[in-house]
């Protein structure tokens, strides 16, 4: 079974400050991990993914995420937040031992609010 | 390359009516899925398909049917609409990596 948790419903940060959106996961094998962003009244857009290799993954719009196997975490980070980063962020996990369904499980989402 | 398209964008149904939400992709992806998004609930998987002719149930399949006769199309059918099906519906397609999402259909059942 695969599951993912986003422990914060909302994250508030001031523009220019670093931001972190937390994600932890549970899989029986090794994970594929993803972050998506959703702007109001839009579909989800892919930000970045971890498949294998370097634990620090860089993605779109200056975002990055760090894979930590011992803590089963994949937190999303950005060194300097912009007001335009305000959106809903989803973490997703897929177990490589999923038996071929290739369908990930999504977290409940974290609303990021960046204050001017 | 249009990606994933969904129609209609908005729909209002009366309880008991049926309808089909359309989803199409032009990326030749094997995997397609339908999600519903409700406040505080995140994305919940309704049905998915791993290829033409193959579908399976997700987390919340009751009240919905799907079929996959071609690689491109994956329609979602509401058999007898209920107010509990008021939601925003997203279709997605993928290979083995990230998913590509459509713009969504906002459905209201009165």
What's this, in brief?
Chain A is an all-beta fold. Chain A contains no helices and 12 strands.
Structural notes for this entry:
- The complex is a heterodimer of chains A (116) and B (110).
- With 116 residues, chain A is mostly beta strands.
- Helices cover 0% and strands 52% of the residues of chain A.
- Chain A has no helices and twelve strands.
- In chain A, strands 2, 5, 6, 10, 11 and 12 form a six-stranded mixed β-sheet that branches.
- Chain B has strands at 4-7, 10-13, 19-25, 31-38, 42-51, 54-57, 64-66, 76-78, 87-94, 99-101, 105-109.
- Chain B has no helices and eleven strands.
Basic shape of chain A: globular
Q: Give the overall average pLDDT of chain B.
A: 95
Instruction: Name the biggest interface.
Output: A-B, 24 and 27 residues
Please work out how many helical segments of chain B DSSP would assign.
0
- Largest sheet of chain A, if any? 6 strands, mixed
Kindly report how far apart the N and C termini of chain A lie: 41 Å
The structural class of chain A is mainly beta
Q: What is the number of helical segments of chain A per DSSP (H or I, 4+ residues)?
A: 0
**In terms of structural class, how would the helical and strand content of chain B be classed?**
mainly beta
The protein's oligomeric status is heterodimer
Cα radius of gyration of chain A in angstroms:
14 Å
Q: Quick one: overall form of chain B? A: globular
Mean pLDDT of chain A: 93
